[in-house]
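[job 4471] stage=fold_predict status=RUNNING
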Amino acid sequence: MEKIVRRTSYVLGILVTAAMLAACGGGLASSIPAPLQNAAQPSSGHARPTGSTGSLLYVSNYGDSDVTVYSWPSGKLEETLDVPAGPVGECTNASGTVWITGQGADSVVEYSHGNTKQVAKLGDPGNNPHGCALNPKNGDLAVTNINTNNGAPSGTLAVYAGAKGSPTIYQDANIYRYYFCGYDSSGNLYVDGIQRDNSFIFAELPSGASKLTDLSLKQSISTPGGVQWDGKHITVGDASKSIIYQLSVSGNTATVVGSTSVTGGNAAAYYIDIDASQVVALVTDSSKAGIWKYPTGGSPTSSVALSATDDPVDLVISE
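[job 4471] inference complete, writing structure tokens
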């Protein structure tokens, strides 16, 4: 079974594009590895200074089972976090707290900005956690589960109230695999994935709602990519085409109002900075983190080399 990472080609998106999920059949080239069966143990030997300050780039390394932390934008390796096996998705909030999904360990862990000591760990047993997002309104933590091993027929969306305790589980009969999720400024949660026929699907969990609502999107998306709020619009990436779409949502309809092409980068996952002037993603060969103007896109304006020991699949910037 292939690994289920979220940036195969590249990342801020890049989870190593591991061909296709075994269960997905043909048609949709997945940029997400399949559930880990025997994840690598945390690597050792990296420098691990504590208390790093300033902006930091966190890179999850699926194969190495660690997260490397760099000063940003200088790219100096500051520390390495030994995290649960198979780290994939990362998300952060305004205070710089970083959450990391451990696909091989069926858990999600929390680190405060610049520190190597784990603050909290939440269980997500048997669900292969993939992407994550933090609600800016109330601190809820949302986690997409690519699939489950606990008897459920498909993946799930798990929401931990206040990023604590056990999650509330949401399922949409039309969503077979849940890939990425993101909150807007009002606390509405958006999630992408695929249906059983491998076609793209986009849905919303409105703030305060008890069920997901499928959204009509008149834009062909080949492979589900990252989902993020850019300050004005919810955005969704097409991992196959390296394009980030800006959407306007009204009722049950999502309309494309703009697009950003990250040439040489991956839209499977990406990070739009605080003032929405730049988007950061892994370059195609995953050896660097590239910076593109946002929403202009095009070719990267600069890049930062990653450690040769990295096996990067996702990244986020903690301010």
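[job 4471] summary: The domain at 22-318 is CATH 2.120.10.30 (Neuraminidase).
[job 4471] exit 0
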